């Protein structure tokens, strides 16, 4: 697990059932949750995946067993209660304050994340009037507002448009690159393919480890990649711990070519542009497989 920086949380002999005589949904779950990791949970419908995620998020308590070492956690449930007496911005600001942000900071971050997900125009729309897709964007944004140490996502991509799914992919990569842990369930087996540090399957009430992703030591290498040509100050080395572990190679006219999975490109650009002293980004292109690089439409770097 190349991004692991320590252990945050442990489930020890955890079981969960509903009611004194209800059937056991989960039994004897033992799981160490490391910091700085991406963990995927799989299983058939009704197998107990959502119950496990609710236990991780602190929404449910175990019937038996112990959960220790809980970090700051945010959660996107499988079903988001959209009919709430707030506007989208009002709800997000309220949740930001619950997460410990000051009002102005929560409001600012809410506006930034809504814009990033293409939902800025709905900031003042009452929650009950939002479309399903926009409501899901709000559900995701509330979990991302305060940079949680543990982000728990239960089918969070469902209902999002393709552009918003890409934004969430990038947000997941950024959380992990920043040392956070993300645990997710998604019905699409291609979701973040090759990126997970650990995969687990819930079956017959038990949690079992699966074989790790084949490319887990190269985070988010599957799918499109981005090439950034940047020029640093004379004699300066690239900043340490670059997001996405980019491949480095000499570029034209003394530049440096950084090739990174597309999901990490925003975080990498931000790191270069905010370095002290900052790097100058000359070009951003898309590398699709072994063929020639293709220019990204409107691919100007963002600060």
Automatic annotation (TrEMBL):
Keyword Transport annotated: yes
Listed InterPro entries: AAA+_ATPase, ABC_transporter-like_ATP-bd, ABC_Transporter_VariousFunc, P-loop_NTPase
Domain ABC transporter: 9-229
Cited SUPFAM superfamilies: P-loop containing nucleoside triphosphate hydrolases
Chain intervals with Low complexity compositional bias: 242-254
Region ranges (Disordered): 226-255
Keyword Nucleotide-binding applies: yes
PROSITE patterns (UniProt xref): ABC_TRANSPORTER_2 (PS50893)
Pfam families: ABC_tran
Domain of life: Bacteria
Record keywords, A-Z: ATP-binding, Nucleotide-binding, Transport
GO molecular function: ATP binding
PANTHER family xref list: ABC TRANSPORTER ATP-BINDING PROTEIN ALBC-RELATED
Name of the protein described by the UniProt record: ATP-binding cassette domain-containing protein
Organism taxonomic ancestry: Bacteria, Bacillati, Actinomycetota, Actinomycetes, Kitasatosporales
């Amino acid at each position: 697990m190349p991004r692991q920086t320590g252990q945050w949380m442990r489930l020890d002999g955890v079981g969960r059932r509903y009611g004194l005589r209800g059937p056991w949904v989960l039994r004897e779950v033992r799981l160490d949750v490391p910091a700085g990791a991406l963990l995927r949970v799989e299983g058939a419908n009704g197998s107990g995946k959502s119950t496990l995620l609710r236990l991780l998020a602190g929404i449910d308590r175990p019937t038996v067993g112990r959960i220790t070492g809980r970090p700051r956690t945010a959660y996107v449930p499988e079903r988001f209660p959209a009919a709430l007496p707030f506007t989208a911005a009002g709800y997000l600001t309220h949740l930001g304050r619950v997460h410990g942000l000051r009002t102005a900071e929560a409001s600012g971050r809410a506006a930034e994340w809504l814009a990033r997900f293409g939902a800025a125009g709905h900031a003042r729309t009452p929650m009950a009037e939002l479309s399903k897709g926009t409501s899901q964007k709000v559900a995701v944004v509330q979990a991302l507002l305060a940079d949680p140490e543990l982000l728990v996502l239960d089918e969070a991509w469902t209902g999002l448009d393709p552009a918003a799914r890409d934004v969430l992919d990038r947000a997941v990569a950024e959380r992990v690159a920043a040392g956070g842990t993300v645990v997710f369930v998604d019905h699409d087996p291609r979701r973040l393919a090759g990126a997970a540090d650990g995969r687990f399957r819930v079956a017959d009430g038990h949690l079992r480890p699966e074989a790790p992703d084949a490319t887990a030591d190269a985070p988010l290498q599957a799918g499109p990649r981005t090439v950034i040509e940047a020029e640093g100050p004379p004699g300066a080395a690239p900043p340490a711990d670059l997001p996405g572990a980019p491949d480095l190679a000499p570029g034209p006219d003394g530049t440096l070519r950084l090739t990174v999975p597309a999901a990490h490109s925003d975080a990498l650009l931000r790191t270069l542009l905010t370095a002290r002293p900052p790097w100058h980004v000359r070009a951003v292109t898309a590398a699709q497989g072994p063929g020639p690089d293709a220019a990204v439409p409107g691919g100007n770097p963002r600060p």
